[in-house]
Design goal:
alpha/beta; D-Maltodextrin-Binding Protein, domain 2; 2 domains; three-stranded antiparallel β-sheet; 5 helices; 8 strands; elongated
Length: 174
């Protein structure tokens, strides 16, 4: 399930899910929830392989301001403001990373993603991380659980595997 953090946290409280893998830019205010750090993530700009920007070796963020963007809500503005740029005019804004990746694959959009969300997909020919450094803070990614809740053996096994998968990236730049 992909949803806003408030929805995911509500699902934890209602016991509809056992755990959530999430980025946590600020401490979790709800003392009933626990956060186990897995890795520190960064943001990247990506494009579909057919996008004209995908073939460029050097790109400045300012060059992309008038291109069509697919962005997550709010956080993307930070990257443009930090470079003294206006927010892109032609955008699709959605929380759904699946929708953003589908639009990116068309070659008609560029977008900002967490590096971890593209880490495995960039091996596929339809996506390319663009050579642009973003001035955005890194975000810890981890497992959010309901404190004092006994997790199922399946959830415990999933957490063990998540720790193993994250281990190579936990101490290096994403």
């Amino acid at each position: 399930m992909t949803a806003l953090p408030s929805t995911l946290h509500r699902n934890l409280h209602e016991r509809n899910v056992d755990l959530v893998i999430a980025g946590n830019a600020s401490p979790i205010a709800d003392e009933r929830l626990g956060f186990e750090f897995l890795l520190e993530d960064s943001y990247v700009i990506a494009a579909g392989a057919q996008c004209p920007w995908a073939r460029r070796r050097r790109i400045e963020l300012a060059e992309l301001v008038n291109y069509s963007w697919v962005l997550p809500p709010s956080m993307a503005m930070e990257a443009f403001r930090a470079r003294g740029l206006d927010y892109p005019r032609t955008t699709v804004v959605t929380e759904s990373s699946q929708v953003r990746m589908t639009l990116l694959a068309t070659g008609r959009f560029v977008g900002i993603f967490r590096a971890s969300s593209l880490r495995f997909l960039t091996r596929l020919p339809e996506f390319k991380v663009l050579p642009i450094e973003l001035p955005m803070a890194r975000v810890p990614v981890g497992i959010v659980t309901l404190k004092n809740r006994t997790l199922s053996p399946t959830a415990q096994l999933f957490i063990e595997h998540a720790r193993e998968v994250a281990k190579p990236w936990a101490t290096r730049k994403s």
